[in-house]
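Anyone up for a design puzzle?
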């Protein structure tokens, strides 16, 4: 069962230089692919930012602000990992042969759901072996930095958000903002506009596993160098970004929850990281 606790990110720097990252860089889609069945990746530039949320932010948790440095650029999957990508792993003998239920929502370009933290690790292990490159889950601070994409507002799109910008339960607005539909299921990845780094669905659609162990002492536990926190409650892991079934407060760039690493729920997925070439 998840425990609510939220976080926010602030300033980022620099532009994306994709051509130098891989000979397979797709400049038209602003993405890198390491194989036909691999996820598309975009470069997140190095930078320094303020992690944590101001006391004025609506629905915030105990998120002490502190500075974090992302010393090197990294590649993050442009979209959440899809059922098609997961099923390719299974077909190739990876991911433990596990086929998560799509709940009748379809597979293909739908974000994979019903995968645990350990399942997500099985996927990155397969992807690393297949490509010869080291894939992993993002750290919580890397995820937050990428979600914020240089902004300081609760959402990468501004102080408010609408159902035209993300998939969430829009029946209640955020801080007086517009209301919208509750779609009651995930939507195909990339159905909504990207943030300034070219990343889609960082707000809503499905929660995303990150590498960090859970800690209520958020401000003091998060490493200042962008690495994951791997102490305290490592049976409980962190998910970020909110999902299709959550209200606007839970899809803020700041929002974070804890879940047992074995949990497999219909609102949980992930995306992946590898080092820039």
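Challenge accepted. My sequence:
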């Amino acid at each position: 069962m998840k425990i609510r606790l939220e976080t926010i990110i602030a300033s980022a720097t620099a532009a994306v230089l994709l051509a130098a990252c891989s000979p397979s860089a797709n400049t038209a889609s602003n993405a890198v692919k390491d194989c036909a069945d691999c996820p598309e990746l975009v470069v997140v530039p190095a930078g320094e930012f303020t992690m944590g949320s101001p006391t004025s932010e609506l629905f915030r948790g105990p998120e002490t602000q502190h500075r974090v440095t992302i010393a090197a650029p990294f590649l993050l999957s442009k979209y959440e990992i899809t059922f098609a990508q997961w099923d390719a792993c299974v077909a190739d003998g990876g991911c433990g042969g596990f086929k998560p239920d799509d709940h009748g929502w379809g597979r293909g370009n739908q974000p994979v759901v019903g995968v645990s933290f350990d399942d997500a690790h099985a996927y990155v292990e397969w992807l690393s072996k297949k490509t010869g490159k080291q894939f992993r889950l993002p750290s919580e601070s890397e995820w937050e930095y990428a979600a914020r994409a240089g902004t300081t507002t609760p959402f990468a799109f501004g102080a408010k958000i609408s159902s035209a910008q993300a998939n969430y339960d829009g029946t209640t607005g955020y801080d007086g903002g517009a209301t919208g539909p509750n779609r009651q299921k995930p939507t195909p990845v990339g159905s909504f506009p990207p943030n300034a780094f070219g990343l889609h669905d960082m707000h809503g659609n499905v929660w995303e596993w990150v590498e960090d162990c859970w800690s209520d002492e958020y401000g003091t536990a998060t490493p200042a160098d962008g690495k994951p926190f791997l102490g305290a409650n490592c049976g409980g892991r962190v998910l970020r970004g909110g999902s299709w079934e959550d209200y606007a407060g839970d899809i803020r760039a700041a929002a974070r929850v804890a879940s047992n690493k074995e949990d497999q729920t219909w609102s949980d997925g992930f995306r992946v990281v590898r080092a820039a070439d």
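A detail worth pointing out: The first strand starts at residue 3 and ends at 6.
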